Structure formats: C-alpha cells, structure tokens
Amino acid sequence: MAAAAAAAVGGPQPPQPELPAPGLALDKAATAAHLKAALSRPDNRAGAEELQALLERVLSAERPLAAAADGEEAAAAGGGGGPGAAEEEALEWCKCLLAGGGGYDEFCAAVRAYDPAALCGLVWTANFVAYRCRTCGISPCMSLCAECFHQGDHTGHDFNMFRSQAGGACDCGDSNVMRESGFCKRHQIKSSSNIPCVPKDLLMMSEFVLPRFIFCLIQYLREGYNEPAADVPSEKDLNKVLQLLEPQISFLEDLTKMGGAMRSVLTQVLTNQQNYKDLTSGLGENACAKKSHEKYLIALKSSGLTYPEDKLVYGLQEPSAGTSTLAVQGFAGATGTLGQLDSSDEEDQDGSQGLGKRKRVKLSSSTKDQSIMDVLKHKSFLEELLFWTIKYEFPQKMVTFLLNMLPDQEYKVAFTKTFVQHYAFIMKTLKKSHESDTMSNRIVHISVQLFSNEELARQVTEECQLLDIMVTVLLYMMESCLIKSELQDEENSLHVVVNCGEALLKNNTYWPLVSDFINILSHQSVAKRFLEDHGLLVTWMNFVSFFQGMNLNKRELNEHVEFESQTYYAAFAAELEACAQPMWGLLSHCKVRETQEYTRNVVRYCLEALQDWFDAINFVDEPAPNQVTFHLPLHRYYAMFLSKAVKCQELDLDSVLPDQEMLMKLMIHPLQIQASLAEIHSNMWVRNGLQIKGQAMTYVQSHFCNSMIDPDIYLLQVCASRLDPDYFISSVFERFKVVDLLTMASQHQNTVLDAEHERSMLEGALTFLVILLSLRLHLGMSDDEILRAEMVAQLCMNDRTHSSLLDLIPENPNPKSGIIPGSYSFESVLSAVADFKAPVFEPGGSMQQGMYTPKAEVWDQEFDPVMVILRTVYRRDVQSAMDRYTAFLKQSGKFPGNPWPPYKKRTPLHPSYKGLMRLLHCKTLHIVLFTLLYKILMDHQNLSEHVLCMVLYLIELGLENSAEEESDEEASVCGPERCHDSWFPGSNLVSNMRHFINYVRVRVPETAPEVKRDSPASTSSDSLSSLHNSGTAQVFSLVAERRKKFQEIINRSSSEANQVVRPKTSNKWSAPGSAPQLTTAILEIKESILSLLIKLHHKLSGKQNSYYPPWLDDIEILIQPEIPKYNHGDGITAVERILLKAALQSRMNKRIIEEICRKVTPPVPPKKITAAEKKTLDKEERRQKARERQQKLLAEFASRQKSFMETAMDVDSPENDIPMEIATAEPQVSEAVYDCVICGQSGPSSEDRPTGLVVLLQASSVLGQCRDNIEPKKLPITEEEQIYPWDTCAAVHDVRLSLLQRYFKDSSCLLAVSIGWEGGVYVQTCGHTLHIDCHKSYMESLRNDQVLQGFSVDKGEFTCPLCRQFANSVLPCYPGSNVESNLWQRPSNKSIQDLIKEVEELQGRPGAFPVSISSETNLSKEMESVMKDIKNTTQKKYRDYSKTPGSPDNDFLFMYSVARTNLELELIHRGGNLCSGGASTAGKRSCLNQLFHVLALHMRLYSIDSEYNPWRKLTQLVEEMNSQQGNEEQQPEVPILYHDVTSLLLIQILMMPQPLRKDHFTCIVKVLFTLLYTQALVALSVKCNEEDRLAWKHTGALKKNACDAEKSYEVLLSLVISELSKGKLYHEEGTQECAMVSPIAWSPESMEKYLQDFCLPFLRITSLLQHHLFGEDLPSCQEEEEFSVLSSCLGLLPTFYQTEHPFISASCLDWPVPAFDIISQWCFEINSFTERHAEQGKALLIQESRWKLPHLLQLPENYNTIFQYYHRKTCSVCTKVPKDPAVCLVCGTFVCLKGLCCKQQSYCECVLHSQNCGAGTGIFLLINASVIIIIRGHRFCLWGSVYLDAHGEEDRDLRRGKPLYICKERYKVLEQQWISHTFDHINKRWGPHYNGL
Fold first, then answer.
1. What is the pTM of this model?
2. Fewest C-beta atoms under 10 Å: which of 791, 856, 1205, 1876?
3. Phi/psi zone of residue 689: left (φ > 0), alpha (ψ -120 to 50 degrees), beta?
4. φ, ψ (nearest 5 deg) of residue 1037
C-alpha cells in the first residue's frame, strides 16, 4: 500500500499505538486471534468493547490537535513520513483483524471458496475491449468481457467487438439482460445450490471491523472536501484527497473481489441504518467527530440541498427517529423554504431578465417537484458514500468499487434506490462540472448497469417515483438555458426555447440523463406507467415544447453573415436525443389494439401543447417571411403517434384529428420547411453561409430523416387528406413563391422572387407535390416493404458496402423495434435486391471493397426516382442514380437514348388516407397543369424538362388514382360561384382533360406583346384565367382563392362570437392586381389538356403528326394495358403512356384523341420577337455564353496545370510516353539518341551535356529476408512462438564475413564476399531521360514551388516530369556508339590462354576517366555526384565493414555489391529463376547498363595490386607452395575456395575498361566456373560420410587416365578428397557428424543434381549480366533444363556438345591450366588453414547457396487471434501495454507506434525499427486498427487492410468490430509491392512522419 495512504484513515502518529492498552504491544496476529476468540463466546460484550477500543485507536480520526486546527492542511499532513507509516499500519491491522489471527492470503482463499459465482459482474473502464451479441441480448446495452464471450458459444450470432467508451460491466449470468443460451461455461451452472453455507466465525470479524473502516473513509471524505470559493472546484485539492485515499478504496475493491460471501457482509454494513446512526450522528464528547459532522452539513447546504432536520441539528439536540419523518412531511408544506428556493433559482439565471420565469413559477408550485430537487436525507453509509462520490465528481476508483458490489442482489436494489434519490444532485453537479465529458461517462457507466434491468427499473419506478424524478430533473436542467423565441411575432412572443449556443447543449451535457430516460422507457412496464400518468405527459410535452422552434434561421437579404454559427449541430442532436428517441421508445410499446388509450393520451396532450404554442407565438394564418426552424418536435410527436394509431392500433383517424382550423395551422410550419429546402437549394440563402446548407442536409440525412422529414411529410399528407384540396394546392404554390409565374401570359412580374430563382423554385414545388402524393412510407407500406424501398433507393444512387448500407438505411432508432441492422429481414431483403461484387484488385490501382449492386430486375421494376429524391443528401446523387439507370437501359438494350425517370406503381393507400387523392382532382391543380403545359409548348422562359417531367408525373398519378366517374355536381357545393368554375366544369381529371378552353383573360405588364395584338402569344403563368359564360375570361388568382377558402373554413368551423374578432390576414402580399402597370388582355387558347399533350408529342419528337393512337392498329392494347415497352423511355414515351391511360379511362377521351389526331395540325407560325423580348433573351444568352466561356477557361486552366510538362514535349515524337528502350537502336545509327522529357530535344548524351535516366535509389533489405526453407514463417500469436532471425540470408552472410575477418587479412576478406543483403542500394527507373542541366533547373522550380507534394526537394526528391513517378536521382548515360558494341560482340578465335592474358593486362592499366583529369567534364562530375547519392542512400553501418574505417577496400566492396544487389533483386522479381526468359520482367525498365558504367568508372580508380589479384590465383600455378608459410605474424589471405564466385565475377568485370568485349566476358566466366565447380565438389565431399568418401576416392582414381578425365566429376571429386585428406578437414567428424551428414544415400543422379543446384545461382546472375551488357535475349526453358540452357547461352558448353544422353554438368568445364595441379594448389590453402581451425574451415566451405524467395510473415486466417494476443501484450522496452501497438510483418517484432516511452534520440520505435529491419522500409500492422502502415524513409502512408469482413470490407479502427478474415489476394499484392520496391509508385497518399511514428 502506498505510504501516502496515511492521512487517509486518520491513522495516529506512530508512537501512539504503544501508549494505552497492553494488548497492542503484542503482535497483531495474536491480538486478532484473542479478540476473535472473545467474540466467539456466547456473551461477547467484553470482546466487542475491546475491539471497539482497539479500532477507535487504530482508525482514530483524532489527529494531533495542531493538524486538526488548520483543517485545510489535514489532508496534506499525510504526505509526511510519519503518518504514512501509521496508515500502512492501520490497513495492516484491518487485514489482520479480518483474518482473525490467521494469514490474510489464506483468509482470502477461504472466503473465495464460498463464492456462488452465478454472475460475472467484471467491471471495466473506458477503452476496454468488450463484446456485444445481439442474438443473445435482451437489453440492447448487454455486454460481455472477452473471456466470457470466448467461453460461450456465439457461432453464427450477430455479435461485434467494441471499445468501451464509458466503461461497463459483464452481464454474463444475468438472465434479466441476456438469454441463458449465451452464458459462458463458468456462469451456466446455477451454482448457489451446491455451495456450502458460510461458517459463522469466518466472517465474524469483518462484521465488526468494516463499519468502522467505512466510517473512517467517510470522515476522510468529509474532511478533505472544501467548498470551492468561486464555484470552481479546485481540482487539485480534490485529486489530492483522492490520491491519499487510493489504498483504502483499493482495499475495499479487493474485498469485493473475494466473491459473494464477502459482498453480502459489505452489503449489510453499507445498508445498515443503525450502524450509520450510531457512528455518524456527530454527538458525544468526540470533538473531531463533531467537526466532521458539521463539515458534512455545510457540504449539503452548499450543494443547494437541505437536510430535513435543519433547525434541530444546529441546536444539537438528539433527533429521535420519529422527528425525522415528521420533519420531512413538515418540510414539504413549509412555505418559507419554498420561497427561499425560488430566490436561489433566480440567481442561477444570472440575471437573464427573469426570462422564462413564467414556467419556473408554474413548476415550483408543485411541492412534489420541490422535494425531488432539493431534499437529501442520508440514512446509511451507502447513501453518504454515493453523496461524496458525486461531490468528488465520480472518481474512477469509487465508481469501480460501487459497481463491483452489484452482483449482490440486495445491494443492487439498495444502491439503485440510493442512486435515484441522488438523481437531482447528480444533475446539479454535472452542470457545474468542468470535466463534464468524463463525468458523463462515469454516470452512464453506473446507470446503465442499474436501469437495463427491467425488473429493477419497475421496482424503483413504483417505490421511488423514478419517472417523476427523471422528467422533473430534465425539465429543471433545460430551464437554465432558455431564451425568448423569436419565431413569428418577435415582440410579443411568450414562447421560450432552449438556447443552442449554451454549453449545456453544445457539449451534450444532458446526454447521461436522456440516455437513462430512453433506457428505462425501453421497458414495457415502465413505459406503460408513463403513458398512463396524465401529469407526467403534460410535464413531458412541456419539456418537448422547449425545443419547438429552437435555432431559428433568418434569411440574410443584404450582406453575407459575418460569423457562421455552428449551433445547428447542437440543435439537431438535442432534438434527436432528447425528443425523438424517447418518442420512439414510447412508440415501441404502442403496437397492439389494447394500447389505444395511450395513443389518445399522448395525442391529446400533444395537441394541447401545440395549441399553447400557437397562442404563445401569436400565430394566425401566415408564417412570418424569411425565417425557418427545422425543429418542430411537437408536430412530429403528433404525427408519429397518429401513424402508429392507424397502422397498428386500428384507431379511427378522424377520432384523433382536431378541427379544420387547427389542421390549417398544423400544416403551415412543416410546409414552410419544405419550401425553405427548395429555397436553400436554389441558393436563396447563400448569404447565411454554408451552415444553412448543412442544416438542410442534416434534416434529410439517414440518421435523422425518420425523426424529421418523414413525420413532416406524413403530417402534411394527413392535413392534405382532410383539408379543402384547392386551399391546399394554392397554399403550396404560395409558400414556394411561384404564384406569379403561373400565368398564361408570356411575361409576368414576381413580387417575391428573383427571376433566376423562379425555375428551381417551380421545380421544387412540383417535386414536393409529387413526393407528397406518391410517398407511402406511413400510408400503408409494411415494414419489409419500407426496408426494401429504402434499400433500393440507396443502391440505385451508388454501389454500397454492407456497412454503409446499414448506416444509410434509417432504422427505427429504438433498438427494440425489431428492424435491427443486420437482422434477418435486412439480410434477406438485401439478397433479394442486390448482387454482391467481390473486392477486386488492380495492381497499382486502389483496392476495392466488396460492394452490393442492384439486380437487373430491380432497375427494371423497382427503381423509384421519388424515393431517391427524398433520400438524397447531395443533389449529385440523384444525377448519379439517373446515370446508372441510363447505363442499365443501354446495356440491356431496353432504351438507347436519355431516359426520363420511370413512373412507378405505388402500394395501395390505407383507407384512412383516401382523401389525399382529392388533391389530384381539384380544379386549381388542373388549371396549374394546363397553364404549365401551355407555357412549355410555347417555349416561355424559366421552364425546364424537369418541370415537364413532374407535370406529366402528376397527370399520370391523377389518371392512376381517378375515382369512378363521379357526378360533377357535388364538387360545387352551395357556395358562391368561384372563378375557377369557369375553367373546368367538374373536378375529375379524366373529364377535365378533354375540356377545351377557348379564351383566357390574363393580367400582363403593359410592355407585353399580348396587349397590342389579341393573337395567341407565348406564355407564362401566374394569374390563371377562366372561360366565362360570355366566353371572355376571368382572371384567376390562387392567393385570393386561398384567402376565400380560409375565411369560409373558419366561419364554418365555429360561429362563436370571438371568431368575428379574428384579425384580417396580414397583407404582406399585395393583391395581384394592385400593381398599376398591369393591364388585362384576352388570349385565344383553344386547347384542352389532351390537345396540348399531343402537340407536346410532336414538339418532343420534332416531327409533325408524330402521334398516332396505338389502339387503332391493335385493339388488344386497351384490354391488357400493361405494356413493357412503355415502362422505360423519355418524354415521348411518357406522353404516349398518359394518352393511352386517358383513353382507357373513358371512351370520350379516346374519341377526342382520335379527332385531334385527324386534324392535321398546321405548323406553328414562327414567333415574332419584340424588341423587349429580344433584349431579355439576349441578356439570357449572353449570360449563358459567359458561363460557358468561364467553364471552358477553368477546364483549360486545369488541364494546363495538370501537366505543365506535356505542353513542353516535342510534338514530333509521338512515342514520348513510351519510354525509349535505351541503346538498342539499329546498327546504322552511330550513337544512342535520348529524348529529354523537359526540353523535348533529342540527341546523344555527350561529355559536356550529358543525358541522364530518372532513377529512384532506395536502400533495401528484401534480399536479406530470404530463408532457406519454402514455408514462410508465421506471425507469432502465442508466447511460445517466437521468430529468431538467424536463418535469414542476411544473418548467414554476416556470420560468414565476421568469421573470415577473424582469421584472414582484412583487405582480402572484403574481396571475398558481397554485402548489401541488408541495406543494399536498389536502383530503378521509369525509363525516361532528361538533360542533367534541365533537371537542375526543374529542381530549382520545384524548390520555389510552395505547394510541395509530399516529397522533400531538399533531399533531391522529385517526380518524373512525364510519368510523375517518384524519383530521387539522375543516372548519367555513358556516351558511346552502338556500332562499337556490335563490333565488340563479334566472336574471335583466340585461344583461352591468350584471352586470359589480355584480361590481366586490361585490368592492370591504371584507371582514369575517359578524358584526362585536368579538364574535368560535366559527365565526370555527374558520375561522381550520382555515386555520392548511391552511397548516401543507405546508412553508414551497411557500408562500412572494414576493421579500419574509411579504407578504400570498403568503397570497393560497396560498389560491386551494389551491382550484385540489383542483379539478385532482378532475379527475385523474375521468380528466382530464369525459366521464363524474355527481355525484362513486368515491363520493368532496367538501368543496369548505365549503372555498370558508373560503377566501373569508380572501381577502376582503385586498382588492385597485381600481387593480390585473385585472377592470378585462378589462372596461374604458383611455383613455391611453401612460401606462404613464412610470414606467420601476418594474417593470411582468404583461400580462393572460400571466395564468393559471383563477387569475383563482378570484381573482374568492373575492373575491365568499358565497354567490355564479349570474348573477354566469356573467358572470365569460364575461368570462374572452374573454381565454382571445385567449390561444389569440396562442399559435397564435406557433406558425405567417411565410407562414401573412400568409395568415391577409389572410383575416381580408376578413371584418372581417361581422355576426358578433367571433365569427369568422379575423377575430380576423388582428387579433391585425396588432397583434402592430407589436412585435418575430415578428422573431427565425431562431434559434428550428425549435423553435417545428410541422411540421403548419394547416387550419381543426386550428386549431379547437387552439383547443378550449387552452380545455378551463379549461372543465373551471369546470364542476367550478359543480357544487360550485350543486349542478348534470355532463352526460356523448363525448370529441369535450366542449367544446360544457361550454360550453353553463356558459351560454357562446347558447340559440338551432343544433348542426347543425360546432361553432365562437368562437361562445361574448360580448365585454363591442368586441373589436377590447380586443384591441388587450392586445396593446399585450405589444409594450411584447417591445421589450426578445422571447425571453422569446414563451416566456411559449406555455403548455402539455394535461398528461397523472400516472403512476409504468414498471417492467421482470423484477425481476432492476432488482436487478442497483441492488444494486451506489453512492450518489451517499457513493459507497459502500448496505446497503439503494431507488429512488423517482415520480422514479427512488436513495437509501439508513436510511443514516447520507446523513443531513442528523437526517433520513435516504428521509424527506428524500419531503419534496422528494412533499411528504411517498414511494413507494420496496427493492431487496434487492422490497417497496414508503410514507412519509406522519411515518409509514410496508410496502405489499407488485408483483413476484410464477411462482406468484403475493411474495418479501419475496428469501429464495427465484426469478425475479420485474411484476404489472400490483398496480402499477395502487399508482398509483391514490397519485393518489387514499388510502394513509392503505387501508393499515392504519402506524408512526412517527422520520426514520430
């Protein structure tokens, strides 16, 4: 226990224990045993008193008086050494006493044995990984710890893993929260039965000791709490106290973990009221106790709470049990205190002009609420502990302790009641808190455990008024941030709304309380109580009305708003969480007929609240202009309960609807929102900034739409079905401000709308009507149909992943509703409408996720544009859906052109809503449709195809839903004749379609053409006119009509006196005729809707008389009208479909259509355009042209920007994007010609102006990762599996080099091997060339370019100007003519001996650059600088292997190793062998030729002393063999048989002057092959055992004199064995035998295979080299013939060689000197070494030359196995569990990403590891995110994930927590990119990591 604990238990100073009682002097165990015995006696009073005395001393709260005097520092005193020890002491005493003299650990074990572990109850804090299984959960909050989850059986269940945000507890074993089938093995057994009873004496001591201990803790909490001065709790002080109490609380926590037996003791202690009273009453002579009690009372008071016995306490008379209850009752009625509380409320308001006081007063008058808010009475330890827990803002330790106790049922109930009792106090503390986020999480951590349990929630509701408390507390909470509503009537409004800018809403401080409320409403029994309690419903509606009309937007008309407020986030969140979710919770219990009563209650109080609201804002009939609020929760409550009532409860709709006047008011605000949406999309609100668009989008967004736009539209549908249709339609056009546009005249004046907004507003109005009339979400669709429609709409917009579909489909927000995401119905509907597209991988492309795409029949029959429009957040999605539809029709051959949105049949309407269809059969709508058709036909401006489409859609809807021919009389009721009767006789669309209208009187501006001439002119529609009896027209005004209707309805609805007083409508609208410049004209029309449609058909098809009634040819059409050919098509198809339907509906229509078609329509005369019209048209055209010009400019600018280089390219070279194959031109061309991709000129590379290849140099350790076994290593997923790197290629080479350096001369060692297995430099190019001076200026321009694109110019990085590939250097091209190289390749007939001499001479020449040193050329400078670049690419440790740093041998070794690295890597890219042949792999362009030139030039600067040149040893016999023995003191040179042959090859070739002659190359290869073959024989001889050796020695000796003895491996082997037997090489077999000897018996075939395999790697590298140097193609072959094909290609095989009999590798040998002599000489060197070091000598001979291809680690199938092992694994450096653990996929090392703990010299661990493991390239799997991150040098990128879920998607950050499985294809792609070093080219999004990963 921490020493600081001391002050915590009020431990006395150390000397104190020794003072009074002699018992204390004994050791603790004895005392404890003695006391236990005393207490076990029947009469245990003495023992009890003794124990009390002891505890009094040990746990004494009496401090030395000095400390007590300054109570402030009391807590700090514990920091000192002395008291700290006492603390320890106190805890030790407690442990001893509990154990009753025994050992504490044994005691713990004993108690654990009695644990009836029926519940798990494990408590966890934030960030813990837990599981949730929806299949097993009863409560949606159910969660399991990982252990219980994995022990249970959840196969096939719908579960996910999640990171806990607020903490939680495991529910395993709790059948109230989850189904028993899901319990784990440990908690399945109901074990309480078979657990023996707890022996009384075991826990006896605990019952005595613990009350004192807990009281002590409470005293501490009292002492430590100081009321903060300025309402700011001094966090420091509180934390200090808590730190001191840490050991005590931990001790209690440990007790709870001892299991059920101990928990029940603790429960007794915590809930026992008598104990509490005895200890804490603060009476008696103990001054300290008094003081602590006073502090407690002060704390209560300062919290704004009263202690019921207020007055009594200060008199310090002892209150008896009786008075306390009386006091409470007395208090409830005590008016004095009430008044006092009221005033404190006022202070809370901090003087906001007593705003909303009206509400306050109403609230405080109910005494019940008051006691809820302000009274606390503590009767037990538990209650006071919770009080302090809250006061200290829920310290984590305390929360965990309180939760750990929950498995105890009795405790659970007591604790829940206590929690409820403190609910109001919690809210107050939360509001004041600064850390409200943390505190919220901790509150929910507790409450979710209590309220998820239905039984418990019900009990508390009944016994503690839980619902009253919650609603009141919420109401109080919101009251603190009310402001006056400015909606409608700013001055006189009495309505108050919450202020969304307040912290309370902005920071979501209310969510813990709301989430508790939603949680308890999910229980049926609780929800029913709520719905039955009228008082609660009234209060709740009161609460909801605070949100009604919040966050009001006012349209800015002049300048752009300065500060865009972001309060709308808070507003939407508040409505969703505080209003909508409780509503869905209540709705889920109103599913059956028996619950009708509840719905009636809600609807009744909802309407009352709405009526209050209309009164409060002084609403009459016109909404205030230019303002909108998206928040109408009362409307939405009303709508959703109506919908439920009709859908599930069979209620009669009319019985719950209000009168007409109320309906008219109800529709105004939702309609206002719809109009505002159109205005926002028409950019009329653009001055309000982006946030208004954000609101419009949020309103329809998937998480909000079913609580926002859907109820609004439904409410409008209900209003429309019950109100007068003419009134409704005219209201719609008036709200959308397009009334003035609906005139037949060609010109009009719109008083409320600018011309540029007219078209989109008209489109908006018509679209809204279409949605209103065709949407059936709440009007009769079943849940499954709704789900299907939603899914189809989302899939039509775009292909979707499974998770995004789940996210986009608005599920019922309440989890108990049944449509759970991922539920059965979701999956079955998904498989019915969509096909799964598995993820695809284009190499180098982006990696796709698994997607769902609509099936063909869905496009064909179910695509519903209306649903798509309703659900699109972005307008572009509608276009996207249409484009996809078009593509489908083209592809399936159904329709070739540009189709119109298809018309979709609707589900039948529920009978309650039949009235909705009257909208389609009202004269007002018909006049609008007629006018619009006419205007479109006459080409008036501001009309679009979209308008026509919607008009036709409405006509078609009308035809589909026409009533049976109704008598036209009933339409015109007794009312006065209205002017629209003069347009159409009846109200049925079918008959009105054929009605001809001859003349129309319109009002037009005086300038309009109609005024002068009375001829039919072009059109426009605002004031529609009608045919009067006389034939002259009536002006028809929508607005006037609507007013008349409104007045009528109101007069009809109530004839009471007060109606007369109703003010006239506010005249914000000027009557349409009032503007003086309007005059009346009469137009001749002579059209009907049918004739207009037919003319439209002609217009659309562009042909006269194009329409011919189809039934004249085929009478069948009228009988079975469903013809697929009309399903898809454009406007023409739509018109034909409508005419056919019209003809079907009535014979009259059919006849009239035929008549119209018979009259040959005369061509429309060309319109004469007046000057005024021309002017406006010109203006429009000019505007349009300007717009187009601007688009064009922008596009041009963009393309210019995109590649400023390509414009500079040489126009004459059409192949500029095909990289020039370098130096492969025709022989007649004298020099290689290069194109510069910057200046575009072509020409050879010259000394003064060299050309270079764009290259990327990177260090690579891929080669070093090769292993010698085929099975790739697995990623370790248990402690046992570890990966040790000693079998990697890099490790083996390292060991070899250090071995050589131990025994041989350093300079010689550095020539005997290659380095670069780790950190080798790999050079790759995109194949483009540029002048080096052009490159320099290009780099300058990049340096000055401010926008750097993720690469660092200072490090020389750039992108190829042509192909944009990443690069960091330029490799100069060596000037040379191709003709020369052709000459060099001619075979010569010189003998091998001559060639050997020439090679030696050429190597001996001093190396120099081609031109004399004095005049250093540009080329040589560039060669030097690129060499510097190559050196700087890798770290120093990968370059310097010499024992003397900086020796030239080092550079020499490094340079030829670069060549080796590049050749080896190319071999790996080809798959490890050359069987495929061909030029170069995967279109990779090679720069090896250029690289060789650069390396050779530098290598020749270091000439090897001819003494040491290995070439001599290979080709000459040394005379005196013993000469070497002389110089003992000097280390010998490396024996030639220990040399790496490939390294020798590169050294020999790079030492030659370039370009090399082909015969010299072949000569070198032949000579080296003899050495290689000898090495193979030696290795073979070492591998086999003694008997085999003797046998071979013998057989070979017999053939020694045959003619081809030098080409027979048996002879040579026997020679090798006999030579090496002279030394000690074979002697020390005993120890090593088993290790070396291979178990196979050697046959001639296996030996031949061994020899060939040994030589193949060399032949492959050599063939590649030859291919690059001389441009010869590689032949392709089978694997088994690879050796023979390569050797003949290299010229090793004699030309006359016969290939019939089996191939023998030895026949390739061509010995430059007698074989037997030179082999003896080589073996002699070995023998002289093995004299001293036989072991090492043998190890060096056996070289493992057959490396397999490098692989990344093999990953397990299921991601969970990785996650479970690594996410809890501790870091080896700092032994903490890292926050972001990662694992290297190359070597399996576990690292901390970004972990500061493992930082070394400012490098974080991942970056450091990427340098050590991959020389700058690291591939890490981030454990907590399942994502792979690539580090390349100083940059990094997120690569993506190789683990996908069952639906083929990644789960980055494991947000969804679904099971993930390895995707082998993706992993292959990753491995391929790693091996081919193409991360830089393929991944596009790189950023600098600043060493911080």
1. 0.82
2. 856
3. left
4. -110, 120
